[in-house]
Amino acid sequence: MTVKGNQIMIKEVVITAKTTDMAVDEGAVQLGLPKEKVKFEIIEEPKKGILGIGAANAKVRVFYELTPADLAEDFLKTLFKNMNLNVRLERIDISDEEVTLKGSGENLGILIGRHGDVLDSIQYLTMLAANKEGKGFYRINVDIENYREKRVEALKVLAKRMADKVLRYRKNFTLEPMSPYERRIIHSEIQNFKGVTTYSIGQDDERKIVVAIDRASKVDKAQ
């Protein structure tokens, strides 16, 4: 069971067992966590009784506080379940303030969308779910079938190709609309090419990068 108290999300189970230790062990199993990661509260101490008469089991509340990473993982699992998608989810805890969640499986293109637009929306919603209860900001990275890594490499190739075209034809070229994240990759990669620069035009979802001749560069002046 998940409960909310004082703005902290808690998962808990109440276990009845012969001993307190046995109750905590079973509670950890039901919560899917190692025993050392859970906390517990004894509701009723076990009683031995006399000759078995009056004996009573221990009753223990076993619980743990969900971190933003836990909330993000739970959100994605629920989302995939509601979409009837079988997704294997791998969690990589990068730091106390950042986690990467990688999904894999069959026919998951629907979770990526065109140039990752659906994936970006899923990541945004997951980040909202992870940060809604806490103070500060916890970074959530969501990837499906290593799409982001493949996309970064594709964008770097695109940047090089466009830089070569600008230098060859001595004219500017405008790329298709991209997300802020993808535009940053193009801007950064183009900096590796002398005689070429970039700037953005358009608004919101129609924001585009122009790969242009760098009129101020020594390369341009020398040609």
List keywords for this structure.
rod-shaped; disordered C terminus; 223 residues; four-stranded antiparallel beta sheet; Ribosomal Protein S8, Chain: A, domain 1; alpha+beta; GMP Synthetase, Chain A, domain 3; 6 helices; 10 strands; three-stranded mixed beta sheet
Secondary structure elements and pairings:
Blueprint: E1 2-5, E2 8-17, H1 20-31, E3 39-44, E4 58-65, H2 68-82, E5 88-95, E6 98-104, H3 117-131, E7 139-144, H4 147-169, E8 173-174, H5 180-190, E9 196-201, E10 208-213, H6 218-222
Parallel strand pairs: 6-7
Antiparallel strand pairs: 1-2, 2-4, 3-4, 5-6, 8-10, 9-10
Helix pairs in contact: 2-3, 4-5
Average of per-residue pLDDT values: 88
Q: What is the assigned CATH homologous superfamily of the largest domain? A: K homology (KH) domain
CATH topology of the largest domain: GMP Synthetase, Chain A, domain 3
Q: Biggest sheet, open or closed, and with what strands and sense?
A: 4 strands, antiparallel
Specify Rg, calculated over alpha carbons: 27 Å
Sheet with the most strands: spatial strand order: 1-2-4-3
Give the proportion of residues in helices.
Answer: 25-40%
The helix/strand order is: EEHEEHEEHEHEHEEH
CATH architecture of the largest domain: 2-Layer Sandwich
Q: What's the total helix number?
A: 6
Form type: rod-shaped
Query: Spans with pLDDT under 50 lasting ≥5 residues?
Result: 219-223
Quaternary organization: single chain
Count of discrete structural domains: 3
Strand content: 25-35%
E-strand count: 10
Report how far apart the termini are: 71 Å
Give me the secondary-structure category: alpha+beta
